[in-house]
Amino acid sequence: MGFQAGQLFVNLPVTNLQKTIEFFTALGFEFNPQFTDEKATCMIINENTFAMLLTREFFNTFTSKTIVDTSAQTEVIVALAASSREQVDELVQKALDAGGKPFNDKADHGFMYTWSFQDLDGHLWEVMYMDENANQ
Predict the structure, then answer these.
(1) Rounded CA gap, 92 and 9, in Å?
(2) Which of 6, 45, 95, 110 could disulfide-link to 117, CB 3.0 to 4.6 Å?
(3) Which pTM value belongs to this model?
(4) Is residue 58 a contact partner of residue 36, using CB atoms and an 8 Å limit?
C-alpha cells in the first residue's frame, strides 16, 4: 500500500482571524488552543483533520505565490462529509446565519446530497451526505 497520511492540515489565509474564529464557532467547530495565537488557529474538523486558519500576512511567510482573490478565483473546495441530509442542511444554514454566503444550491443526486457555502474570506466549503446503500 502507498503512502497514507496520519493527519491532514488544510492551510487557509484569512483577513480577520477573530471574526473567522467566531464564524466557525457558530458552526460548532472547536479550536486547539496550543496552536492558536494572534496569527493563526487550528480548527478541529475531526480527530485527524484540521484547518489551519492563518492571517494573510502569516500565510505569506509560507509561500512566494500570490494568494488568490476568492471573489473571482477558486483554488480549493473543502468538502466535509455529514452523517445525514439534515446535518448538511443544518451546517450550511448555520454558516449562512453566521455571515457566510451561499455558493451552490442544494443538489440531490439520489446517492449523494450536497449544499455549499463561502466562509467570510470566500473559501468554498461543500457539505455532503453520501448514502452508500442508495446504489444497491
Answers:
(1) 22
(2) 95
(3) 0.91
(4) no
Task: Say which residue the cell 483533520 belongs to.
Answer: 49
Strand 30-32 with 112-118, pairing: unpaired
Tell me the pLDDT tens digit for each residue of 46-87: 999 999 999 999 999 999 999 999 999 998 999 999 999 999
Q: How far apart are CA 104 and CA 56, in angstroms?
A: 26
Going along 40-111, which residue ranges are E strands? 40-46, 49-55, 77-81, 101-102, 107-108
Helical (H) or strand (E) element with 114: strand 112-118
pLDDT-above-70 percentage for the chain: 98
Asked if residue 1 lies in contact with residue 25, where contact means CB atoms within 8 angstroms, the answer is no
Look at residue 87 in the predicted model and tell me its pLDDT: 96
Helix (H, G, I), strand (E, B) or coil at 98: coil
With cut-offs at 50, 70 and 90, classify the pLDDT of residue 5: confident
Residue among 119, 122, 124 nearest 94 (CA): 119
| Neighbour-count burial of 123, counting CB atoms closer than 10 A to its CB (0-12 exposed, 13-18 middle, 19+ buried) | buried
